[in-house]
Structure to design on (481 residues):
C-alpha cells in the first residue's frame, strides 16, 4: 500500500541509541484553516510603542519630560529614544520623521491579511498536534518521493476520530503551543480572535514520518516530533495508550526492543537465556509498560542498576497517581504561586505524616504538569501530586508507606542523588555485582503503590514492613482524558 507521507525532513533528536531508529507512519487528518497574520508590523516592543505614541500625540518632549509622563526610569527612556533614532522613527531632537509618523497613524486602519494554514489531528487517539503549517509559495506542502526505500510501520487509525473536525479553540491551542516555542527564540506573536478563524470541514488524509528509537541512557523508546521540534510528548502518550489497547503493536514493540538488545540469536542452554520474572506478563505490560521496562533486568546482568531502581520508583508513583483522580492536585499546583509551593507541599506532607526533607521542596512548573498529563514521569512532579492526593484520601497507599517509612522523602532523595552521581560519571560503572540496598526498598514501594494481584516484585517473604491493602482494583491507569 502506498502511503501519502508528508516530507518535513528527517528529525533526529535522539542521543546515543541502541541499534538503529525505526520509522512509524502516523495517520493524520489535515484541515485547512484561514486566519489573520498575527505578527506586529512595526517590530516595536511595548516601551518603544508607548514613547512613540506620546511623541506623536503631544509633540517634541525631552527624556526627563517623558520620564514624568510615563513613570519609566530616565535611563530606560534615554535608551528607548536612542533605539527609536536607530530605527529611523525619530531624529536627534525627538521629532517623529514624517513618513514614519504617517505610517504610525495608519497603523490602526490596516486591513488584516488572511493566510491559509494546515492543522493536524492525529487519528490514533484523536489529539490535535501543536503545529500549524502556514502555506505559501515558499512553504508548500511536500510529500516524500515514492522511490524512497524505507520501511514504515503504519499506525492503525481510529475511525471515530475521522469525523470530528477541529474547533477554532483547537487552532488557538496549537498557536499557543507554537507561541511558547517562538518566545524561547525571542519572537512575540499575537493570537487572532476566534471569530476570525475559518475551518474547512473536509480534511485531507496523510501520514507523518515519525522516527522511533530506544536510547541508551534509559532503555526507553522516544518518538521524534515529525515537524522537527525535538520529541513529541503527544505522540509518545498516544503510543503508550495504543500499547494498552493493541496487542499486535505491543508484541511488535517487544520483539523490536528484544532484537535491539540481542541482535544475535542466543545459544540454546547458553548464558544468553534469561528466565522471565513473574511480573513480566501481558497484563502488566499493558497496564504499566514503562514501569515493567524499568524493573526488567538488562541483558547479561543479574542485578538492577541504581538508574533502573530510580526509574522504577518514578514510574510506580506515576501509575499510582493515574489510578486516582489527580485533577484537583493539578489545579491546586497550577493556580498556586510557585513561590508558595514550598508551603503548600510542606503542609500536605505533614498532614500525611511525612518527615520534611532535608532540602526544601521545589516548585512544580506548569510545563512539568503538562508533561505529566502527556504521560511523562518526573520525580518532583509525581511526588508532589501523590502527596496532595494522599492529603485528601485516607486510603491512598502513600499513607501506608509513610506509616512504615516517615523518612520516605529523604530516602528517595538519597536514591536520586546516587542516580545523578552515576549519571555524571562519578564512581564505577552502573552495573552492580550484588543487589543494591535500594533495590529491596524500591520493591517495597512498588508493591505497596500498585495492586498486589498483578505479581509485581515484592520484598522477601515475611519481611514486608508496609501494611498490605485490601484494595486490588485492576482498572488500567491512564493520565489521558
Amino acid at each position: 500500500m502506498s502511503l501519502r507521507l508528508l516530507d518535513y525532513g528527517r528529525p533526529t533528536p535522539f542521543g546515543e541509541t541502541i541499534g538503529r531508529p525505526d520509522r512509524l507512519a502516523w495517520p493524520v487528518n489535515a484541515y485547512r484553516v484561514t486566519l489573520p497574520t498575527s505578527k506586529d508590523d512595526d517590530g516595536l516592543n511595548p516601551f518603544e510603542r508607548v514613547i512613540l505614541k506620546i511623541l506623536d500625540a503631544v509633540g517634541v518632549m525631552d527624556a526627563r519630560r517623558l520620564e514624568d509622563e510615563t513613570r519609566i526610569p530616565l535611563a530606560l527612556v534615554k535608551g528607548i529614544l536612542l533605539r527609536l533614532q536607530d530605527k529611523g522613527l525619530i531624529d536627534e531632537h525627538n521629532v517623529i520623521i514624517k513618513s514614519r509618523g504617517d505610517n504610525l497613524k495608519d497603523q490602526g486602519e490596516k486591513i488584516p491579511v488572511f493566510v491559509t494554514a494546515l492543522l493536524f489531528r492525529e487519528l490514533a487517539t484523536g489529539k490535535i498536534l501543536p503545529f500549524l503549517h502556514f502555506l505559501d509559495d515558499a512553504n508548500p506542502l511536500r510529500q516524500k518521493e515514492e522511490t524512497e526505500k524505507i520501511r514504515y510501520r503504519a499506525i492503525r487509525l481510529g475511525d471515530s476520530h475521522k469525523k470530528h473536525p477541529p474547533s477554532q479553540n483547537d487552532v488557538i491551542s496549537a498557536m499557543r503551543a507554537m507561541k511558547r516555542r517562538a518566545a524561547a527564540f525571542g519572537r512575540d506573536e499575537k493570537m487572532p480572535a476566534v471569530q476570525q478563524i475559518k475551518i474547512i470541514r473536509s480534511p485531507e488524509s496523510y501520514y507523518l514520518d515519525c522516527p522511533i528509537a530506544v536510547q541508551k541512557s534509559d532503555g526507553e523508546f522516544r518518538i521524534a516530533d515529525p515537524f522537527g521540534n525535538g520529541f513529541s510528548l503527544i505522540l509518545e502518550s498516544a503510543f503508550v495508550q495504543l500499547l494498552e489497547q493493541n496487542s499486535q503493536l505491543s508484541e511488535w514493540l517487544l520483539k523490536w526492543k528484544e532484537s535491539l538488545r540481542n541482535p544475535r540469536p542466543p545459544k540454546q542452554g547458553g548464558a544468553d537465556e534469561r528466565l522471565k520474572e513473574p511480573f513480566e506478563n501481558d497484563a502488566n505490560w499493558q497496564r504499566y509498560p514503562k514501569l515493567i521496562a524499568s524493573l526488567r533486568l538488562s541483558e547479561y546482568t543479574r542485578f538492577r542498576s541504581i538508574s533502573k531502581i530510580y526509574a522504577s520508583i518514578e514510574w510506580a508513583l506515576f501509575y499510582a497517581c493515574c489510578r486516582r483522580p489527580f485533577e484537583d492536585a493539578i489545579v491546586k499546583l497550577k493556580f498556586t504561586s510557585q513561590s508558595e509551593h514550598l508551603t503548600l507541599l510542606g503542609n500536605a506532607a505533614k498532614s500525611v505524616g511525612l518527615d520534611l526533607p532535608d532540602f526544601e521542596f521545589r516548585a512544580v512548573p506548569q510545563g512539568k504538569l503538562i508533561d505529566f498529563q502527556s504521560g511523562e514521569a518526573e520525580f518532583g512532579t509525581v511526588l508532589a501530586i501523590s502527596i496532595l492526593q494522599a492529603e485528601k484520601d485516607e486510603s491512598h497507599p502513600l499513607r501506608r508507606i509513610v506509616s512504615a517509612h516517615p523518612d520516605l522523602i529523604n530516602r528517595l532523595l538519597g536514591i536520586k542523588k546516587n542516580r545523578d552521581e552515576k549519571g555524571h560519571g562519578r564512581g564505577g560503572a552502573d552495573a552492580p555485582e550484588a543487589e543494591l540496598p535500594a533495590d529491596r526498598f524500591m520493591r517495597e514501594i512498588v508493591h505497596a503503590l500498585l495492586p498486589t494481584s498483578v505479581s509485581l516484585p515484592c520484598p522477601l517473604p515475611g519481611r514486608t514492613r508496609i501494611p498490605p491493602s485490601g484494595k486490588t482494583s485492576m482498572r488500567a491507569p491512564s493520565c489521558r482524558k
User: Anything to note?
Assistant: The CA atoms of residues 291 and 315 lie 5 Å apart. Confidence is low (pLDDT under 50) at residues 265-273, 460-464, 470-478. Residues 168-184 form the longest helix (17 residues). Strands lie at 5-6, 22-36, 114-122, 128-135, 153-154, 198-199, 204-214, 221-223.
